[in-house]
Specification:
The complex is a heterodimer of chains A (about 475) and B (about 375).
Chain A lengths: L8 E5 L12 E12 L4 H14 L5 E4 L4 E5 L3 H8 L13 H13 L10 H13 L15 H8 L5 E7 L8 E12 L5 E12 L1 H6 L1 H7 L6 E5 L8 H9 L2 E4 L7 H13 L4 E3 H4 L2 H9 L4 H4 L7 E7 L4 H13 L3 E9 L4 E7 L5 E9 L11 E7 L9 E5 L5 H4 L8 E5 L7 H8 L7 H18 L1
Parallel strand pairs in A: 3-7, 4-5, 4-8, 5-7, 8-9, 9-10, 11-14, 16-17
Antiparallel strand pairs in A: 1-2, 2-6, 6-7, 11-15, 12-13, 13-14, 15-16
Helix pairs in contact in A: 2-4, 7-8, 9-16, 13-16
Chain B lengths: L1 H4 L11 E4 L6 H14 L5 E4 L6 H11 L13 E9 L8 H26 L8 H13 L1 E3 L9 E7 L1 E3 L2 E3 L17 E8 L9 E6 L6 E8 L8 E2 L8 E7 L3 E9 L6 E10 H5 L6 H11 L8 H19 L9 E3 L6 H8 L9
Parallel strand pairs in B: 1-2, 3-9, 5-15, 11-14
Antiparallel strand pairs in B: 3-10, 4-8, 5-8, 6-7, 8-9, 10-12, 12-13, 13-14
Helix pairs in contact in B: 2-8, 4-5, 4-8, 5-8
The chains are: A alpha/beta (about 475), B alpha/beta (about 375).
């Protein structure tokens, strides 16, 4: 019989609640260290923890958080590829810190690739190719697999819950192994004192093996409580596991900044939304600063009337992923009731995309999306770096420029636009990590009509592109 | 000199001498000029005119600071992060090549207009409103002021010259193509400076100044940016650092605006920046008379308050001397950073502030 470890204080830490507002220090208590068990013992094992815990006198009662459950699908392909090839020695954890960056650089160096320290499409293709050459018995990842734990710590303090991490592994299909554990990140300061605890279930196996247990995974989602799925990969409606989870969850969370072909994925997401799946894109939240600033530029009443005069919009973004730029355009167009009419790509250094809309009263609107090559785009690719709203009606007081500190305002202000424009230099909120945005996403219930309406416009634009 | 020999200034109580800028072209020539002037008349007779001092908002600076109890306690290194003084013109050379080629932005604008704005914003409260009390304080603050890093001028002062660009939707020529300007001219049409004041009130607070021709807008303002709150409880909806800014606009739309945070409507505790705006013309109607007219009346009434004293001129030249030494040296045309006409100056000027994690206000 497992003996729950005594309530030893593992460590204290500041809550990663937000970067701005640290909470008071919170005890993080281990109820049950990660323990290997067989699949059919999972629920029994977890109830055992609670059972034995509450018989213990003299220590605060530990209570299972009845909030929600979340499945995290964490393929973490490239850390594993790097580990198999011997470049990466640290734990597989989905945290792309300095160790990961060094490993990527080492790999890029030895394969003669451009040294970016980032897994771009080129590097990923090369890593996959190298690993595919190895015999099956060499496909072992010797590193510690810490997937599920690092992430959970980051969100558990604010959102204690049941987290089920699915960790696909390489190599031979040897079925699925399970681990359960429990941590208590929050102590309630009531008279008796009680710990609020999270349960972690980690399942490992090859992709195929995980597909086979799809139904079992869905059954681990606590009935009656909200069910989230964080799919840290491109959505794949063909995959059995994805299908099952999509059917059984209340909200499917994605991050389009990871997509190598966001245009294609957006159309898939739009289909899912149309078939009534609640999809949340973490990348959407990266736009909020730009949305706020664009909106506040039209706060003064005298400018508000000029909003309908805007017929030129230019959006600059970090080259490599157009998702944020498209969503911003979709948002703006949906707010002003613009209908997409034509789409052209002129390419060039800036990969220019031109989209024509028709506004209310038949106003012809031209939008331009420009992919700006940046020296270092950081970990998140495709952040917005500039926005210009203008009108061909020179009397309209609507010209607005938002430009990020990272690239400055010169491109947007060139050609005389600085003269009539309300310009604001924006503190770059680049590289907002998915984990941080996730905890924001978890705070909200119900679908986000703004996102869905914006994506609907994006989908229309992308349909024009296809035709 | 000729006025003196012609015996036109015999009575210090009756006869007055009004001098228009430039008051010399550097410290030495200013000192020489002052000597000449003092030889023929008394300092009490001399009215060095700087029309900026005739503007309502400039005079209001003192009223604002010393007639209100709530601002002055904040007016120091404990609460102020930095000051930005901007004098931007949209015009180009306007046929003044002969003068401007030898002057440049530093002599044309900084030494006089910007320094006056600076003095009134930074000086200590005067003992009284008489001319010398105020001018003593101005001299005192100038004497405590120096270019931020004298050993590395390039980190504390940036010059620039405009190239061809846009004005009201039309192409305008670059400085070197203007009538009368030398094709290889290194005359700065833009200057930005970082200054420090070594006194109890301001030690460590950077003062940034900029002026230029062919800027996007004709605008003059003094902006006091306050320090951020020590602990941020509320998140700005736009995730921006939103410090409080007090902006004193001298033109256009003379007035004062204060930027602060408010809660956005709705259930979340998010904040957004808004401006509380006072405008002279809405409060008092179109009151501002011509600055020169006001100053000439003062001169006739014998009030020297709004005129520059000789030692004041010298003190402000002294601040700029290390800069003039470098910028006046003969140099190939490519040393001077360029900016497109109709833009806010060269990229180097942006970096001047970005290095300190600050940025110029976009006006």
């Amino acid at each position: 019989m497992p003996h729950p470890s005594s309530l030893s204080k593992l460590k204290t830490q500041n809550s990663p609640l937000t970067t701005h507002a640290p909470m008071t220090t919170t005890p993080l208590v281990t109820l049950q260290k990660p323990k290997d068990i067989s699949l059919n013992e999972i629920e029994a094992e977890l109830s055992q923890i609670w059972h034995s815990q509450n018989g213990d006198k003299g220590t605060p009662a530990a209570i299972r958080a009845t909030t929600f459950s979340m499945v995290v699908y964490e393929p973490e392909e490239f850390q594993q590829l790097l580990a198999i090839l011997g470049f990466y020695k640290s734990p597989i954890d989905g945290v792309h810190g300095s160790a990961t960056k060094e490993a990527v650089l080492a790999a890029q160096k030895s394969y003669g690739l451009r040294l970016t320290g980032r897994v771009d499409t080129e590097t990923l293709a090369k890593l996959r190719e190298e690993v595919a050459r190895l015999p099956v018995d060499r496909l072992r990842v010797p590193n510690m697999d810490a997937r599920g734990y690092t992430l959970s710590e980051a969100i558990a303090v604010q959102n204690p819950c049941r987290i089920i991490t699915l960790s696909p592994i390489f190599g031979e299909d040897q079925g699925v192994t399970a681990q359960v554990s429990a941590y208590c990140p929050i102590e309630k300061t009531t008279s008796s004192g009680s710990l609020i605890c999270c349960e972690y279930i980690t399942l490992r196996g090859t992709k195929e093996a995980l597909n086979r247990v799809s139904s079992m995974v869905s059954s681990l989602l606590i009935p009656g409580l909200p069910k989230f799925v964080w799919w840290k990969a491109t959505p794949n409606p063909e995959q059995e596991l994805f299908k099952k989870l999509e059917e059984n969850c209340n909200c499917l969370i994605l991050d389009s900044s990871y997509f190598s072909d966001p245009e294609a994925e957006f159309l898939k997401i739009q289909e899912m939304i149309e078939s009534d799946t609640y999809v949340a894109d973490l990348n959407w939240h990266r736009l909020s600063a730009w949305q706020e600033l664009a909106a506040s530029a039209f706060d003064p009443p005298e400018r508000r009337v000029a909003l309908s005069e805007i017929d030129r919009i230019t959006i600059d973004y970090e080259k490599g992923n157009a998702a944020q730029a498209l969503m911003f355009l979709g948002w703006f167009a949906s707010r002003l009731n613009w209908q997409p009419g034509a789409y052209t790509e002129t390419g060039g250094d800036y990969d220019l995309k031109h989209i024509h809309f028709t506004g209310t009263n038949g106003l012809a609107i031209a939008a331009e999306l420009a992919a700006i090559p940046t020296a270092d785009a950081g970990e998140i690719i495709g952040d917005l770096i500039g926005l210009r709203l203008t009108s061909t009606n020179l009397n309209a007081d609507c010209c607005t420029i938002l430009c990020s500190e990272s690239t400055g305002c010169m491109r947007m202000e060139a050609g005389g636009s600085a003269q009539s424009c309300r310009t604001e230099q924006v503190t770059a909120t680049n590289d907002q990590k998915a984990e941080f945005l996730l905890s924001q996403q978890l705070q909200r219930w119900g679908r986000d009509p703004l996102y869905e309406e914006s994506l609907a416009v994006v989908a229309k634009i992308l349909q024009l592109q296809k035709n | 000199m000729q006025l003196g020999t012609a015996d036109m200034l015999p009575d210090p109580a009756k006869h007055r001498l009004v001098i228009e800028k430039p008051f010399g072209k550097d410290l030495t020539s200013a000192q020489a000029l002052n000597q000449v002037v003092r030889k023929v008349c008394d300092e009490k007779q001399v009215y060095r005119i700087d029309h900026y001092l005739g503007k309502e908002t400039v005079q209001n600076l003192m009223v604002f600071r010393f007639a209100n109890a709530i601002f002055e306690p904040l007016w120091n290194r404990q609460y102020v992060d930095h000051l930005q003084i901007t004098v931007a013109e949209t015009v180009g050379l306007e046929g003044r090549a002969g003068y401007y080629e030898t002057a440049g932005a530093l002599r044309d604008m900084v030494q006089n207009h910007l320094m006056q704005l600076f003095c009134l914003s930074a000086m200590e409260p005067p003992n009284s409103l008489d001319a010398d009390s105020i001018r003593n304080e101005k001299v005192k603050v100038l004497q405590a002021t120096h270019i931020a890093d004298i050993d590395h001028i390039e980190n504390s002062a940036i010059r620039g010259q405009y190239t061809a660009g846009w004005r009201d939707g039309r192409m305008v020529p670059g400085y070197r193509d203007e009538d009368g300007a030398s094709p290889g001219s290194t005359t700065p049409t833009y200057a930005s400076l970082k200054l420090y004041i070594d006194n109890w009130r301001w030690k460590g607070v950077p003062i940034y100044m900029r002026t230029g021709k062919r800027m996007p807008k004709k605008v003059t303002e003094i902006a006091i940016q306050f320090k951020e709150v020590p602990f941020l409880m509320f998140q700005s909806a736009s995730r921006q650092a939103n410090p409080n800014v007090l902006a004193l606009r001298i033109q256009p739309d003379e007035g004062i605006s204060m930027r602060f945070e408010v809660k956005t409507p709705g259930t979340s505790l998010r904040t957004r920046s808004v401006d509380m705006d006072f405008r002279y013309d809405t409060a008092f109607g179109q009151a501002n008379t011509d600055a020169y007219a006001r100053l000439l009346v003062d001169c006739m009434l014998g009030d020297q308050t709004l005129f520059t004293r000789g030692d004041e001129v010298e003190a402000s030249w002294r601040i700029l001397t290390p800069l003039l030494n470098v910028w006046d040296a003969p140099a190939p045309p490519e040393v001077i950073p360029l900016y497109e006409a109709g833009s806010w100056g060269p990229i180097e000027a942006e970096l001047l502030l970005n290095r300190d994690n600050r940025r110029w206000r976009r006006l």
